[in-house]
Amino acid sequence: MSLLEVKELVKHYAGKRGIFAGHQEKVRAVDGVSFSLARGETLGLVGESGCGKSTLGRLVVRLEEPTAGKIFFTGEEISGWTGRKLRELRSRFQIIFQDSSSSLNSRRTAGAIIEEPLANFGMRKGERRERVRELLTLVGLEPEHAAHYPHEFSGGQRQRINIARALTLQPELIVCDEPVSSLDVSIRAQILNLLRELKKRMGLSYLFISHDLAAVNYLVDRVAVMYLGKIVEMLPAEGLVSQARHPYTLALLRAVPEPDPRQRTGQKPVMRGEPPDPVSPPAGCRFHPRCPEARDVCRQNEPVLREVEEGQLVACHLS
Ligand SMILES: Nc1ncnc2c1ncn2[C@@H]1O[C@H](COP(=O)(O)OP(=O)(O)OP(=O)(O)O)[C@@H](O)[C@H]1O
Ligand code: SF4
Ligand SMILES: [Mg+2]
Questions:
Q1: Of 303, 143, 142, which is closest to residue 232 (Cα–Cα)?
Q2: In angstroms, how far is CA 167 from the centroid of its own chain?
Q3: How many angstroms separate the most distant Cα atoms in the chain?
Q4: Distance 231 CA to ligand 2 centre (A)
Q5: Which long-range contacts does 117-121 make (Cβ < 8 Å, 24+ apart)?
Q6: If DSSP states are collapsed to H, E and C, what string results for 115-161?
């Protein structure tokens, strides 16, 4: 049984109001996404800015309500859960965001930040303090750091505090939303290593969101490539470079200048031209206006995501 399974997940946001009465644009942030994640597995989610990665991550941990579709966690459908049931479920999955500073309350010590979820779950004070010390050590900080405030830490250390807090309630799944993008290049590899170690040690599963194909390939078991609200290719990470077929995945791969994540600098534009507006995706294949292989059928018919090799799914008429 999968740890997580999503079926035809959709999230449309209300966009601008049109000039006609009653007309409201729809931002199709996530537009029919299905995948599953096994226990202990890391699935990488990549794609250009605005393709819907963070929205999908927030839907999975139930921080957003889906417009349509279903989410199953350990086989149970959780999409409709509310109230106490949802609060209890929240301890089983967590999310780590890109910006390590803004996700920490500057007026609270690292210890208080990490401890907070434990207090909410009724653990006694002495036990909580002990658990905080353990967690700080686990993420490579010192127990004494519990008394320090966020501004006293470096960016990498702050992200370690976020990771400790995410681990407080021993979750089964962590959504990592670009957890190293805002860090110095020299620190990125350290945080990725930490995430990899913690996964092994604690049997965690990750949905790992990134712009950076190199970082993803370093950490994940499978890669899902997203374009304008849809997954266009999904394949095992070890086959990414040699077996990828979708023209968009190939373009992303060509845009990776340096395979070693420690050598990378910043986020580069991945290809010429911008993705179209998710308010009005192109007809047929959404990628056709930018695809070097596009032909008539691509402008008329939308390709479905289908298995082309064992474990590899592609949505392209040519595959
Ligand atoms: N609350 C919201 N209201 C309206 N539109 C939204 C909202 N959140 C996201 N969007 C839109 O949905 C689309 C997907 O956004 P999302 O943040 O999920 O993309 P992303 O792939 O995470 O991008 P990035 O790589 O820049 O973080 C974008 O067009 C975005 O502007
Ligand atoms: S379906 Fe056509 S336009 Fe879309 S990716 Fe394949 S070749 Fe390109
Ligand atoms: Mg995002």
A1: 303
A2: 17
A3: 68
A4: 13
A5: 117/91, 117/165, 117/168, 117/169, 118/168, 118/169, 121/91, 121/169
A6: HHHHHHCCCCHHHHHHHHHHHHHHCCCCHHHHHCCHHHCCHHHHHHH
How many angstroms separate the Cα of 130 from the Cα of each of 85, 168, 231? 28, 12, 43
Phi and psi angles of residue 179, each rounded to the nearest 5 degrees, phi first: -70, -15
Amino acid identity for residue 25 in this structure: E
For residue range 103-125, list pLDDT tens digits in order: 789 999 999 999 998 887 778 88
Q: Which tens digits make up the pLDDT trace of 276-313?
A: 999 999 999 999 999 999 999 999 999 999 999 999 99
Where b means 16+ CB within 10 Å and e means fewer, 251-288 reads: bbbeebeeeebeebeeeeebeeeebbebeebbebbbbb
Residue nearest to atom 3 of ligand 1 (CA): 13
Q: Please give the distance, rounded to the nearest whole angstrom, from the Cα atom of residue 29 to the centre of ligand 3.
A: 11
144: how many CB neighbours lie within 10 A of its CB? 11
Q: Ligand 3 centre and the CA of 47: distance in Å?
A: 10
Q: Residue 177 gets which letter from DSSP?
A: E
The pTM for the full model equals 0.92
Hey, which of 51, 176, 182 would you mutate to test ligand 1's pocket, going by the most ligand atoms within 8 Å of its Cβ? 51
Measure Cα distances from 3 to 110, 191, 210 in Å: 31, 24, 21
Return the domain boundaries, the chain: 4-92+171-314
CA angle 216, 63, 148 (to 5 degrees): 75
User: Can you tell me whether residue 13 is helix, strand or coil?
Assistant: strand
CATH code 3.30.2290.10 for 4-92+171-314: no
Amino acid at 225: V
CA atoms of 137 and 75, how far apart (whole Å): 34
